[in-house]
Amino acid sequence: MEKFIFDKGIFKGCELTYEEEGHIYTLNGEKIESVTTLVGKFNPDKYKYVDADVLDNAAFNGNVIHTSIELYAKYGITSDKYLEFRNFLRLKELYKFEILECEIPILVKVNDKVYAGRFDDLIKIGDKLYLNDNKTTSILDTVSGSLQLSLYALGYKQTYDKTVDGLTLTWLRDRKYALVPVSWWNEEQLNEKVRNLK
């Protein structure tokens, strides 16, 4: 179990815990929903026709790539074993971005309900800062990605009193790779979107 105590923002003094098994977040001892779960509610049938074994395999591969990127960002460890990781390094070289932090926990308050999550990377391109999320899906869903990153950006502001200049998705799938800027939902739009969720 991981534990975080925040010392800034509207969540100053709050304690967030995260259990990897089951992906369970608790805030001050009470279980709360994740940003990923919230975003999934907007398209619950997204993977309805995909075989469970295919989804399990994709999730495993996605976790391997995410872990490879995290190990590289934190400790400089590289591996030639995974094509998607090598393509991540190609994108890093092409766009000349620097990874400042990774796996950053946030809390975000939307319509008086608090959600938890972690965004993959805080990257710097030139003098601009971006929240980045790494995706290994067969098709890049920029709509869900934009919503997810916008929630993370609002959470970054609420949790740390920090802002960024933009939002990006890093798409890594087999031989395909891209760094894709996505649109930003403001706080009012996020509140309305979540309020209208059925």
Itemize the secondary structure elements and their pairings.
Blueprint: E1 2-5, E2 15-19, E3 24-27, E4 30-32, H1 35-40, H2 52-75, H3 83-95, E5 97-110, E6 113-125, E7 128-135, H4 142-160, E8 166-173, E9 176-182, H5 187-195
Parallel strand pairs: 7-8
Antiparallel strand pairs: 1-2, 2-3, 3-4, 5-6, 6-7, 8-9
**Which CATH class applies here?**
Alpha Beta
Helix-strand string: EEEEHHHEEEHEEH
**What does the main sheet amount to?**
5 strands, mixed
Low-confidence stretches: none
What share of residues is helical?
25-40%
Provide the domain count.
1
Count the E strands: 9
- The best one-word shape is globular
Task: Decide which structural class fits the backbone.
Answer: alpha+beta
Radius of gyration: 17 Å
Strand content: 25-35%
* First-to-last CA distance: 32 Å
Kindly describe this structure:
The chain is an alpha+beta fold and 198 residues long. The chain has one domain (44-195): Lambda Exonuclease, Chain A. Helices cover 36% and strands 33% of the residues. The protein has 5 helices and 9 strands; from the N terminus they run E-E-E-E-H-H-H-E-E-E-H-E-E-H. The chain has helices at residues 35-40, 52-75, 83-95, 142-160, 187-195, and strands spanning 2-5, 15-19, 24-27, 30-32, 97-110, 113-125, 128-135, 166-173, 176-182. The strands form 2 sheets. The protein has a 5-stranded mixed sheet with strand order 5-6-7-8-9, sandwiched between helices. Strands 1-2-3-4 form a 4-stranded antiparallel sheet, with no helix packed on it. 30% of the residues are buried.
